[in-house]
Specification:
Number of helices: 9
Structural class: alpha+beta
Shape: globular
Largest sheet: 7 strands, mixed
Number of domains: 2
Radius of gyration: 19 Å
Number of strands: 11
CATH topology of the largest domain: Beta Polymerase, domain 2
Strand content: 15-25%
Helix content: 25-40%
CATH architecture of the largest domain: 2-Layer Sandwich
């Protein structure tokens, strides 16, 4: 429990930094997923939760990536598939490079393994079934290509093999960036809904009204952070009766971690472990 509390405190430190630079740059973020439930139901972390999730609408997300990195403290790193070549997810993690938090399943990835919070972009959803289908396909292709080294079967394996036969290794980032631009090109003024497309088809069908995303402040661990004004509708759509506690056997963190050290850099910790 003590190690979980130390991890949460480091995550909260990162959130404080993100909140500060976002407010200074007119960028809107929102507490999301279990972090939003925690804010509403517990006024802080869900007791057994082990991470922090925030989201931004795509225009703010792009602004954050373009403008904010240079304003962050030296140890805070915005990890994307562009900034960290071994990273294989289409959303960002904001990490403290002077700490260690290696996720289960990521042991073989040559990436920054500092304590992190997740930052998900939400994309504007176009009108029309054809445009929405194309957008979902782009999202699915991005997911498949970023995770090309994972074992796949069926259609995903076929798609990966076909693309790999036409795209050289050093062109993957370029192809993914083009797909991402196509997926996220829709103008918010002409779109009434947004969605999390980061996992391809899996989340694309869950559409949230853009009107829900007026930012308001909420208390989280005795501090004020931002959440969407329509958080009740948002969380009900995602979780159902989110105010009801889950059974005791389900009160576990959503992440698995192989190594956590909130005092030492992942470089020092993982290098030491590799030599032992």
């Amino acid at each position: 429990m003590e190690s979980l509390n130390l991890l949460k405190e480091k995550q909260l430190d990162i959130l404080r930094i993100v909140d500060k630079v976002c407010r200074e740059n007119g960028i809107i973020y929102y507490l999301a997923y279990g972090t939003a439930i925690g804010a509403v139901r517990h006024q802080g972390f869900i007791p057994w939760d082990d991470d922090i999730d925030i989201i931004m609408l795509r225009d703010d997300y792009n602004k954050f990536l373009d403008k904010v990195q240079q304003q962050l403290p030296r140890n805070i790193f915005v990890q994307t598939y562009k900034s960290d070549k071994g990273y294989n997810l289409p959303f960002a993690k904001i990490r403290d490079s002077e700490t260690t938090c290696q996720e289960t399943g990521c042991e073989n990835l040559d990436i920054n393994h500092g304590v992190f919070i997740d930052l998900f972009p939400y994309d504007y959803i176009p009108e029309g079934k054809i445009n929405r289908l194309k957008q979902s396909i782009y999202a699915e292709l991005i997911w498949i290509l970023l995770r090309k080294n994972e074992k796949k079967s069926g259609v995903k394996k076929i798609i990966t093999n076909i693309i790999s036969s036409f795209v050289s290794e050093n062109k993957y980032e370029e192809v993914i960036e083009k797909l991402e631009n196509k997926m996220s090109k829709y103008d918010k003024a002409n779109c009434g809904y947004v969605a999390n497309l980061n996992y391809g088809f899996g989340y694309a069908s869950r559409l949230y009204s853009k009107k829900m995303f007026n930012p308001i402040e909420i208390s989280f661990e005795n501090e004020k952070f931002l959440i969407m004004e329509g958080y009740d509708q948002y969380l009900t759509m995602a979780y159902g009766d989110y105010m009801k506690l889950p059974p005791v056997e389900q009160q576990v963190g959503g992440h698995g971690y192989t190594i956590v050290d909130t005092n030492k850099s992942y470089i020092e910790v993982l290098n030491k472990n590799s030599k032992e």
